[in-house]
Amino acid sequence: MSKFDEYFLMQESDVAEYVKEKITFFDKKALLEVKEIGDGNLNYVYRIKETETNKSIIIKQAGTVARISEDIHLSTNRIKIEFEVLSMYRKYAPEFGPDLYGYDAVMNCFAMEDLSEFRILRDGLIHYQIYPHLADHMSTFIVDTLLPTTDVFMEHKEKKEQVKTFINPELCEISEELVYTEPFTDHNKRNELFGPIQAWLSQQIYEDQLLRTEAAKLKFAFMNNAQALIHGDLHTGSIFVTPDQTKVIDPEFAFYGPIGYDVGNLIANLVFAHVRAVVAGEEAYVEWSKRTIASFIDQFQKKFIVKWNDGAIDRLAKEDGFKNHYLHTVMEDTAGICGLEIIRRIVGLAKVKDIVGIEEPEAREKAEKICVLFAKDCIMKRASLQTGDQYIGLLQEKMEEI
């Protein structure tokens, strides 16, 4: 009988033993080094390296309590969803997903490629690194992984079965609370407002009844629009990069939801990097990040239409008027969700280093004000935000207001 025949949360010493017993990656006599490297909010991530050859692998395990807060208790089933979605990435967009080496339903973990030669995109952006293929890669990834999971491309009964398979109520509840509810109400008193502008933030968000109403509309759209199998947490901390390659990880929040949720989340996090560069006076980087945001938005739409034309199987979906309507609603969702993601990262529980890492208080104050004013317009004017130039124009407008 093995100690791994019953679930427990592993420590580093357990992981080395586990890998030798359960994963056919290392020689049984190999000397292994194990280090816990997870910096996310939910799971535990271990890098296992063979000292002699430097071969390495990653084990990711789900715990029953979130790392971000002991108040958040979770089913470990999320790790199964994550593994299955990563497997889907290997099917639809193999160049953008890590290699996978096995899933363990007892220990609630899986083994995957070590991406240590890559860099977390957020870290690269914070240090003003330029990734020339980012807009191209991420627009391709989103289109190639999301459209094939919609009713436009799938037989409808099969799609409905997939909706049941990937229902993810506990992780969805986290998004519903941390993204859509708490930033506008703070009913659990978990929001953290930057001291020097606390009163301003409160006025801009808590006291804006029209904004709160639109947030409510977006929340219920999120809960009821089973459009595609989305990543559910597609920010710059979930993307690994080199100058020439891009890999997407961490889809434990995946479920059938609005396509705009993934698109809007990524735009919001690129905006954080852009605004950080603005207040730091990094002019060359400001120009690159501006072009990248606009290019990502426009390339996404162009590739969306091309793939739709090539692969739509629903007869009415092939109507030009419907295709354009569908994309317009995706972009409307995108703008609203971009605004929600920005606001929740400014005032909510889970901050981003792009903003909180700004050391000069006046610069951070400026950055937060730009972000919040931009985010509010993304939410309130979401039906009219459709192109990359419109996003960049709105950003410039808010910078001039501060």
Structure description:
With 402 residues, the chain is of the alpha+beta class. It folds into 2 domains: 3-113, Phosphorylase Kinase, domain 1 (2-Layer Sandwich); 119-401, Alpha-Beta Complex (Aminoglycoside 3'-phosphotransferase, Chain: A, domain 2), CATH 3.90.1200. 52% of the residues lie in helices and 10% in strands. The protein is built from 15 helices and 10 strands. It has helices at 12-22, 78-92, 121-126, 134-146, 156-165, 169-178, 182-185, 198-205, 209-224, 259-280, 283-311, 320-347, 353-356, 361-380, 388-401; strands at residues 32-36, 44-50, 56-61, 100-104, 109-113, 119-120, 228-230, 239-241, 246-248, 255-257. The strands form 3 sheets. A 5-stranded antiparallel beta sheet has the order 1-2-3-5-4, with helices on both faces. The model has no long low-confidence stretch (mean pLDDT 95).
Number of strands: 10
Reading the helices and strands in chain order gives HEEEHEEEHHHHHHHEEEEHHHHHH
- What's the CATH architecture name of the largest domain? Alpha-Beta Complex
- Sheet with most strands: strand arrangement: 1-2-3-5-4
Helicity range? 40-55%
SS field, number of helical segments:
15
**Overall shape:** globular
